[in-house]
Amino acid sequence: SSTLFLAGMVVAGVGFGAAFLGGLRQLSAVIPAEHRAGVMSAFYLVAYSSLSVPAVIAGIVVTHLGLQTTFEVFGSIVAAVALTMAAEAWRTRPRQPARP
Q1: What global pTM score does this model have?
Q2: Which of 3, 50, 61, 92 is the most buried (most CB within 10 A)?
Q3: pLDDT for 26-82, tens place per residue?
Q4: Could you give the count of Cα atoms lying within 13 Å of 34 in the half-sphere of its Cβ?
Q5: Contact, 54 vs 46, CB < 8 A?
Q6: What distance in Å separates the CA atoms of residue 40 and residue 4, rounded to the nearest whole number?
Q7: Cα angle vertex 59, ends 21, 63, to 5°?
Q8: What is the 3-state secondary structure (H, E, C) of the chain?
């Protein structure tokens, strides 16, 4: 339904925006000033490529597999990557020192 589509679009947009801004904030904090422009350029390149390359691939694949199959395969891959990255972020998060 269109209501679910719009709700999903809002959730995805908020999630991507928060992740993108969080990544930029973290990079800004740790990159030396003399390298900041180059690293930020690379960050934008990777961020936008991570959106456009899978969309182009899905567009090519849909002509061979059909819309339903492409959606199921593409969605499953995206979900698997997202869950893997969430698990990795949880596993490698900074630990708080034990309180006495």
Answers
A1: 0.61
A2: 61
A3: 888 888 989 988 988 998 898 889 889 989 999 999 999 999 999 999 989 989 998
A4: 0
A5: no
A6: 35
A7: 165
A8: CHHHHHHHHHHHHHHHHHHHHHHHHHHHHHCCHHHHHHHHHHHHHHHHHHHHHHHHHHHHHHHHHCHHHHHHHHHHHHHHHHHHHHHHHHHCCCCCCCCC
